[in-house]
Each structure stands twice: as structure tokens, then as C-alpha cells.
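Write out the 3D structure for:
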Amino acid sequence: MSKLIVSEFVSLNGVMEAPGGEATHPHTGWTFKSLYGEDHYAYKGTELEEAETLLLGRKTYEGFAAAWPTRDRTDPFTDKINSTPKYVISSTLTDPEWENTTVLPGDPIEEVSKLREADGGPILVNGSAQLVHALAEAGLVDEYRAMVHPVLVADGLRMFPDPAVMQKLRLTDCIAYESGVALLIYEPAAD
């Protein structure tokens, strides 16, 4: 079984929307406008190297597909992101142009359940708020990684949905970086 990891940039007030430059948000690119250091940037590289598969919602996929194929090859993330197998949950995307991309057009919960059941390494989900909320509600997330930035931003999509049933999490690791960013890693807690 593959491990499903949700990893998000999050503001202190819980917003995960527009961390990198989405034009529709009033504080777009807030991760780069807040205190940002090389220390936690290096962690994102390690996380990406460990991932065997990327799982994305359509909107996040479109943003990534517009940016990464033409990114500077000296960026250490470029080759890894472009070469890693990518699965996109979408009922509207039919012919992805980005290399190594497969569209999963069916029910998101069924499709992701099949991915998790296959033998393989970690499946990494970034962004993709609507998908993450559905996966959390269905209990399919094995680990949450919240890279919390010391910034408050305007209202936006949050990392965690309002659950129908309370879900308990267990802190497995916590790293505080010199920049003031804190990485909090949780897994579902057994009852």
C-alpha cells in the first residue's frame, strides 16, 4: 500500500490558497512575501525526492503545468517535478500535455483508493484544496504536513475542511526553522 501525504504551505490563520502566485487572491504569493528561508526550502526538496507520485487536483495541475515544464533546469526541483508520474483528478481535463501525466476522470475517492492500494512509494499532494478536503473527509490521508508561515493573510481556502465528524490527529514531528516557519507533521490518531 502506498502512503498518501498531503503537504501544504499554510498561513498562521490556516489559509493554504495562493501561496505561490495565483492572480485571483489579494495576498497572492504570500509565502515569498513572508519570512522565507533556505532552511525550510531544502526540506521541500527532500520531500519531493522521496515522492514516487504526485497527485493533483485540476486547478493546481494547471498552475504547475504552466510553470514547471519551462522552468530553469538549474532549479533543483525542475527535473524531479517534470519526470515524476503525475495523476490529476478531473472530470474536465482530457488531454494533458505535461509529461508523465495521467488523468483520473472517475470518482476521486475511488480513484485515489486504487492508487493507495497499489504497491509503491509515497504519493504527494500539494495544493489541490478541493481534492484534499474530499480525501480528508474520506479518511484517505496517511500524513499531513503543514509548513506554517508566520503571516496572516486574507480569507481563502483552508488546509482542513470543516469535518462532519471530528477527526483526531497525532503530532509525529515538529521542526522550527530560523525564518519563523514551523513544519508540523501529523497522522490520523487511532481511537
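The helical segments are 30-33, 38-50, 58-67, 78-83, 108-117, 129-137.
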